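C-alpha cells
===========
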Amino acid sequence: MSVKKDLLVYPDERIKIPSTDVRKFDDKLSEVIDMMREVMEENGAEGLSAIQTGYPYNIVIVRGDDGNILELINPRILKSEGMAKAKEKTLYYPKIEIEVPRYEKIKIIYEDREGKQHHMEAEGKVARVIQRKIDYTFGGTFLAKVDKATREAVEKALADNGLVPEVELCPTFSKRVYFLSVADKLLFFIFLSLFSKLFGVSSETLSKIYTFDKIGILIVFILLVGYFIYGRYEAKKYSSCTSCQIGNMLGSMAKRGVVAIALAVGSYLFVNPLS
C-alpha cells in the first residue's frame, strides 16, 4: 500500500509537530521518500521536510548544486560558519518571501536509505535550504528566525489572502475561578475566627485557631499565585480571552490580597492568645 501524498499549507497546525528520528530503514521509509520527491517535483520546490507532507519523520530532501536530489535522513548540523541574510520562500507559506539570517556554510551528518552514515559540507543556497528544512523537523518555520515586526507583517499578508489560523475561543467557564473560590472560603473562616474571644474559648483553643489563621493566610497567597499562573496559561491558549488579561487578574488578586493582610493583622490582635 502506497503512502498518502499530501502537502501542509498554512495554517495547518500539524507543521508544529516535532519530527522523530528514523529507526527502521525499510520499504515504508523508501515509500515516504519517493512520495516526498514527487511532491517536491510537482511543486518546483528546492527542498522538503517529511512533516511538510504530514509525516513527522526526521527526513529532509534538497536539490543539490548539480540538480540531483539529496536524501538526508536524521540530519544534524555539526559545524557552522559565517552568517548572512537572503530572501527565502517556502511551500508552507504561499506567495511569501522574506529575508532570513542563516549560516553561510555548514557541516552535517546524516544517514541514507540503508541506514549508512555520511558527512557532507554545504554552503550558499544548498546550505540555506537544508537549514530551513531542518527547522521544520523541530516544529518551527522561518518565521521563528525573524523579528516580531516581520512576523506580524507576514501573518497580516496571509490573512489578507484568506489564510488565518484557527483560534480557540475563550471558554465561558474558567477553571482558574476555583483558586479564588477556595481563597474566598478561607478568608471567610478567618474573618469568623476574629470573634473567637467573644465566645470565651480557652487559650489552647485560641492557639489552634490562630495557627489555622496563619496557615490559612499563607494558603490564600499561594492560591492567588496559582490563579495568576493558570490565568496566564489560558491567555496564551485562548487568544480571544479578554478576561485573561493581566489587569483583570491583578485586580482580583489585589482585592483579596488586601483583605488577607487586614485579616492577618486582625487575627494577630484579636485571636493571638499572647496579645
Remarks:
- The chain has two domains: 13-160, 177-270.
- The longest helix spans residues 203-237.
- The CA atoms of residues 111 and 122 lie 16 Å apart.
